[in-house]
Amino acid sequence: MSALKPLIETTGLVKKFGSFTALNGVSLKVYPGEVHALLGYNGAGKSTLIKILSGVFPPTEGQISVEGQPVSFDSPRNATDAGIGTVYQDLALNPLTSVTRNFFLGRELTRFNSPFGLLKMDEMHQIAIQEMAKIGINIADPEQAVGTMSGGQRQTLAIARAIYFGAKVLILDEPTSALGQKQQMEVLKTIRQVKDLGNIAIILITHNEIHARLIADRFTFLSLGEVIGEGTAKDLQGDDIKRLIAGGAEIGDLAKELAAT
Amino acid sequence: MSAAPRQESDRHDAKGPLAALFSRPEIGPIGVMLLLFGMLGYFSIPAGEFSLNPFAGEGFNALGIRNNLRVISQLGIIALGAGLLIIAGEFDLSIGSMIGFAGACMAMILRWGFSVVIPYLSFEGGVHIEFFTLIHLSDVSPLGAIAITMCFTLFFGWLQGYIVVRSGLPSFIVTLGGLFFLRGLTEVSLRSFNHRPDQVKGATTVTEIPDIKNIIHLPGHGEIEREAAKALPEADLTAIVNALPADKVASITDRLQYTYQRIADAKTDIMAARGVKPLERALENAINSGNEGMVATIQEKIATFKVTPVVPKTVTDIDVARAYIDSVVTARPVANFFGGDILEPIFSWLYYPIDWNTNNFGNQFAPGLYSCVMIWVILSLLCYIMLSRTQAGNWIYSTGGNLNAAKANGVPTNKVKVSLFMFSAFCATIFATCQVFEVNTADAAKGNLKELEAIAAAVIGGIVMTGGFGTVLGIIIGAFIFGIAKEAFFYIPGIDGSFYRVFLGLVIIASALLNENIRKRIMGAI
């Protein structure tokens, strides 16, 4: 493992909103073919971190490098171009239009490469079906409206789309929340399929420690904007994860404090 | 071969052609449209006659088709602008005022030319405002007038769109402001321009614009209006005929002879009907009184009743010259493109030799269709291709369907919205252009309430008010329903004509409910 170079690396990321410090020096290494679970309590700074990684806003301090090259993003488009694909909780899908139209939303294949050139619909249908099949979902009708698909299928569509459009780093924001048990498993299977492709680094943001343990190779725990624990799946045993996800050291301190009084 | 395990995707079959047809959002509106066509056809069959053919009625004679299609296509043009904007999730309430503004602007430029003036404060002879004329074009071509007007209206469209996307205010409020602003601006400018001696002081109309589309180039007379050319001295008209090739004269004469014969026949028929009427009344009386001898006599008289046939007029050179002037191609193709007629050869053929496009007096009924029908067809086709087949269309759908998703995927949603506000203004200007060149006047009150009619037509055609859903075909059908309803209700015997509004009101609510239902079904909420 150590022979591998990290696909994306952050060093000492700090983000301040006025007087509020959302992130206080976060360093992170994500390797290709690995699922890196980012865990933490509400308000730990997970969302701020992924928004910086996906170019929504720049960090106050610190550096991001992709494949060893330092990068800085002015817009989400920059981040996408650099190979960072983010799949948000709302999936950025338009439920009223078809699978294909959503797959290619904003990057449609057209004749003459003009917004008013005709869409190459057949080619787009074919690619959409193919790419979704690669990560394990077969769709019968690419004209099907996304609104009629199951939550798991939608997640797959969003992931397949990000990969097809060049994501080397895939950021999944709470992909299993708001889904039923069976669909959560479907999503985890999809993540496993993406991992097995071997060349993609996955950052998985989740609350659910069971899901993280099922699929993740490496963990980073955030609390109050700082990393309070990290390691590979082997390093972390049993209650460590549970303790860290609940705020870790903080709770331990609290217990001492309580005992002292 | 082992069966593959059942997957989530197996629950959704590809739809068969029939199921696909019936799940299309336009299927309900198409039904209403066919119902209205049937009503218009059957109710407009004159009382006492019976026919199973809906096209036998007055609603579908040549003039009926000409007039109905004009109303439908005018509404259809602005409904396209309003509909596409609603699909992108915004409204435009300023369409009606934009029509008034564009019409007035264009008419004023055509009537008095175009100037750019700079007002400044003058101190000579008391403080007052003077105007310095920077540019004055006294004779602007139709194309020039349209281009200048477009600059203004597209700017207003852009401005409204820019305010909406920048401020995040509801477009309802911003364009409501536009509605009052533009209507007021139109009235103010027309009043201030109408201090001119050739206009009624303070009037909010522009009149006496020349009939530009009917200006023709007549050899020996230069450019001249058709009516003026027809009123030339007889010697001039004869000279024109003499200069024509023989076969041209022959074909015009042929057609005129047919027309005169047809008119004479119609007159004969009318006279016969008039002459028989007293006899029929007498026959009725005789039957009532039971005088059988009298009944037989009168019946005999009716059977043998004849009037001497009317002799048709003979075709003179003057008639040929006037018919020729009518057939000369316009010298102002732009004005004719917007305000003239189309399909004239077909309508002429339907009169002679087909004899369908003929009124009760034997004359040709309709000269052709209004040009705005063609413009509507062209615009609809372009919009259809744009919305369903291009990247721009997908951007419009996604902007209205899920704004954040569209933004996250790099769709320039603000540009999409602003462009559609401009397109809505463009459609309103096209509407006004057609009107100005058709009737050669402008009125500040033109286009009143048209914005609501356009939105109503779009809703009837299956556009969802929250955006993201609807088709161009739907907008077209909506325009048909809205345009035809008034005519269809007009012909229902013994009913107040205003019932068409009651009907449309119900259709609008029913359509909105249906649209919402379809939308929820697709969103997976039902």
Query: Overall mean pLDDT score of chain B?
Result: 87
CATH class of chain A: Alpha Beta
Work out the count of structural domains of chain A. 1
- Which protein chains make the most extensive interface, counting residues with beta carbons within 8 Å of the other chain's beta carbons? A-B, 40 and 34 residues
- Distance N to C terminus of chain A: 47 Å
Sheet of most strands of chain B? 2 strands, antiparallel
Gap from first CA to last CA of chain B: 38 Å
Strand content of chain A: 15-25%
Helix and strand run of chain A = EEEHEEHEHHHEHEHEEHH
List the topology elements.
The complex is a heterodimer of chains A (261) and B (526).
Chain A: E1 8-17, E2 20-30, E3 35-40, H1 46-53, E4 61-66, E5 69-71, H2 76-81, E6 84-87, H3 99-103, H4 121-134, H5 151-164, E7 169-173, H6 181-196, E8 201-206, H7 209-215, E9 218-223, E10 226-232, H8 239-245, H9 249-260
Helix pairs in contact in A: 4-5, 5-6
Chain B: H1 17-22, H2 27-43, H3 62-87, H4 95-112, E1 114-122, E2 128-137, H5 142-167, H6 171-193, E3 205-206, E4 215-218, E5 222-225, H7 226-230, H8 234-243, H9 246-289, H10 292-303, H11 317-327, H12 333-339, E6 341-342, H13 344-351, E7 369-370, H14 371-389, H15 391-401, H16 403-408, H17 413-439, E8 442-443, H18 450-460, H19 472-490, H20 499-523
Antiparallel strand pairs in B: 1-2, 3-8, 4-5, 6-7
Helix pairs in contact in B: 2-19, 3-14, 3-15, 3-17, 3-18, 3-19, 4-5, 4-6, 4-17, 4-18, 5-6, 5-17, 8-11, 9-10, 9-11, 12-17, 14-15, 18-19, 18-20, 19-20
